[in-house]
Specification:
Elements: H1 6-17, E1 23-25, E2 34-39, E3 42-49, E4 52-60, E5 66-68, H2 69-74, H3 85-103
Helix pairs in contact: 1-3
Protein name: DUF7693 domain-containing protein
InterPro entries: DUF7693
Amino acid sequence: MPSLTAREVYQQLRDAALEVRLLKRLDEQPEPGHVQVDIEGWRLTLDFEANHLRHCQRCQCPDGRVGELDSWQRYGTDPVSLLSTWELAQIERLCSEQTIKNAV
């Protein structure tokens, strides 16, 4: 089964930033600084540092295909680097808003 490309994962993040697809932050936190999100069946592990999204560590789509940072960087990019400045800010905002809601 082929792995997910950075562009496929970027498209999910972009759609979430545009609020075309629903991004839900999950309670699971695999490691400090990592945030698990679900975008309509796509499970992503995002790497944050001081509330700034740095990388997408891993993604699994509904059909079971997986993509990981190591394979994307081999081709010189990862999904987060494809986001515009505005899209990146939207994803960071969506994740931080859900953190606040979950804490209340």
